[in-house]
Amino acid sequence: MTEQIATSRTEGGGIRARKRRVLALLAARPTTAALAEWLAAQPPAELVDPLIAALFHTDEELHWRAVEGLGLVVVRLAEQELEAARVVIRRLMWSLNEESGGIGWGAPEAMAEILARHPGLATEYCHIFLSYLRADGAERWQHGNFLEHEGLQRGLLWGLARLRRARPALVGAADIAPEVIAFLASPDPTVRGFAARCLGLLAAREARAALQPLCQDTASISLWQDGRLQSATVAALAAEALARLDTDAVSVAGERS
């Protein structure tokens, strides 16, 4: 990894060369610390395009390292010029807009990773991120940008869990639990599993009945957590969520007694 950093400082080239170097780095499966070290040796603005391009990669582990890397880079960008970081977030948001003509692969999870790492950007954009969970309602205040594609829903729910753990004050169960519960009925097992995980983290006790049937769901899915790709079943994630709800219920009862 040290040799890669040294090479990155001496190699020339434009955007294509940078994309190749970034892809080579991500494919080497660096630890989070090594990834951060390598990225810190580069001007952050020059890394945004290569990392966004890597979000579309079909290698699942490389994709998630790109998500992690983009979060690290945009935080550095924000420290230098906050508006430049906002531009990156708006770019991700635009990719999720139907008018963009694209699908926005990787945008929800990348957006969440950035917000999880930067408190100021989280305060500004968390409400927009949460709007992707819900559809527009009849009332003017019922503003939603529901993501219909299951591939995007996976990233959205992964991102919701990431934000809940990093910014619990901004992501509470009261406003979003009904929307997340609806994802438990998805035909996509990853969406079901990620939704179950979110509900446990949200301490959404109203989800208990909907979670119970998923304890028999043996579908296996992949989950990026703690800097590595892990395997889990929907049943295991549902059971973990129910265990969290039980723990929270005991804690609340103890506080009241």
Structural account:
With 257 residues, the chain is mainly α. The chain contains 13 helices and 2 strands, in the order ααααααααααααββα. It has a two-stranded antiparallel ribbon with strand order 1-2. Helix 2 (15-27) packs across helix 4 (48-54) and helix 9 (150-166) runs parallel beside helix 11 (189-201). The model is unreliable at 1-12 (pLDDT under 50).
What is the 3D shape?
Answer: globular
Please state roughly what percent of the residues sit in beta strands, choosing from under 5%, 5-15%, 15-25%, 25-35%, 35-45% or over 45%: under 5%
Would you tell me the overall average pLDDT?
91
Structural class: mainly alpha
Largest sheet: 2 strands, antiparallel
**Terminal Cα separation, in Å?**
54 Å
Question: How are the strands of the biggest sheet laid out side by side?
Answer: 1-2
The count of strands amounts to 2
Helix content: 55-70%
Low-pLDDT regions: 1-12
Rounded Rg: 19 Å
By DSSP (H or I, 4+ residues per run), the number of helices equals 13
> From N to C, what is the helix and strand string?
HHHHHHHHHHHHEEH
What can be said about this structure in brief?
This protein has 257 residues and is mainly α. The protein has 13 helices and two strands, in the order ααααααααααααββα. A hairpin with a 2-residue loop joins strand 1 and strand 2 (228-233).
Structural descriptors:
single chain; 2 strands; 257 residues; two-stranded antiparallel sheet; disordered N terminus; mainly alpha
